[in-house]
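Issue: ligand-bound run for zinc ion - logging full I/O for the record.

Environment: standard queue, default settings, no custom constraints.

Inputs:
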Amino acid sequence: MSDIVIIPEPVKLKRLQGSFKINPQTVIFADEKLKSSAQAFVQLISPATGLNLPIKNYSSDSKQDNTIIFKKAGQSCGESYNLQVSHQNITICAGAEAGAFYAVQTLRQLLPAEIESSTKQQADWNIPAVEIEDCPRYQYRGMHLDVCRHYFSVDFIKKYIDLLAMHKFNYFHWHLTEDQGWRIEIKRYPQLSEVSAWRNEDGKKYGKIYTQDEIKEIVRYADVRHITVIPEIEMPGHSVAALAAFPNLSCTGRKFEVGTKWGVYEDVYCAGNDEVFEFLGNVIEEVISLFPGRYFHIGGDECKKIRWEQCPKCQERINKENLKDENELQHWFIEQFADLLKSNNKKLVGWDEILEGGTMKDVTVMSWRGTDGGVKAAKAGNPVIMTPCRYCYFDYKYRYLPNGPGIEVDQDKSQRTYSLNPDVPAELTASQAKNVIGVQGCLWTEHIKTAGEAELMSFPRMCELSEVAWTPQNQRNFKSYKQRIKIHLRRLDILGVSYYCEPEILD
Ligand SMILES: [Zn+2]
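Outputs:
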């Protein structure tokens, strides 16, 4: 229906006659277990409407006119919800807070775009009468942010998380360590804050670290929005910033500077030195204490083997552990932490390289170099998150914005995000396809320097990905999406989000 624009598109939506109008007499009734979602709704609408609607306890006789009811009900999953809007009242049924929270995000998009304003607006706060039944296609719907190549403020990260929540994403993958900067305070190793967080950029110091208090603040902020934050501590590669503070953890022991060039470095953690495992074990222990979610990302990508080939300690490890070569050494390296994480009740996530050199049980694979790594992992029974770079790397330049930010790519290498079907059914049996637990968009920031550029590259690609992640495949339709995104962008305007809308979306 032309007056209804919801992104991601709900599973079932039926337009009914009339509309509900929010006014100063509207009362909210909420089941005790769904109260925080009712509060989220009040907070969301109060700046623009100037209303601070009261929330009362729900009981079965609460159904009166001019009410919004949050009612606990049995649902197939904690993220699903039913939403009924009539002329008299609004009823949200959800099995858990997450579902009620997504109903609130849907309600928000049923309200006029002015609801996004942070100041009071003159508008009729009408919500069209509808019946919606909704639940996500995938249990994992993620967005990533690299804060190492360029640092982004706590305020920006909160805005990013708000936008994720609006589009019903439930994971924020926070890339915290790199060759060019270490961004998470580890109290046991203050050198990481003093040395590894800073690089030389045109004669000036560039960098910053997130303090543990800031990290906790972001984790809490995300949690209220039903987003789990996944920390990523890269190993064994992409580790030059740490080696700058602790050269003894490298194979050569030579002096290092925090990386100043983009690309893949040859120096990595030494796999033959027990101090490396002690250091990373201590780091992981502190990081675990800050992130209550189940997933822990250890990177594992783009680890060059040249230092290991020449290092006596690494070669000794290969012999002692009966390994065939450096690929198996990398596999052995990761395995040490798989066990540590498991004993802490965490699930290890890594990029698709982690299955080179052998299979590993229970680890979750992010397939970035296309979908082949994910297909292989899904066949081996590993949970897979699809993040194929051609569709899901939002740092690729826009086709029609050659002078804009982002990385130069062959245009035939980049594909429209919307066209991704992460299950790749041709190569996987139905039961193997079930191992594909979701999708993720990645924002690497070598060529993205500011918050505005980060938004421009992410929007509206993130909106497209939200439908890949949420809406059933057989219901997705680019033509319908194109019509809706044009109207949806009005919300992003009011939210002060930069975006670039390609001509083929606007035609
Ligand atoms: Zn070594």
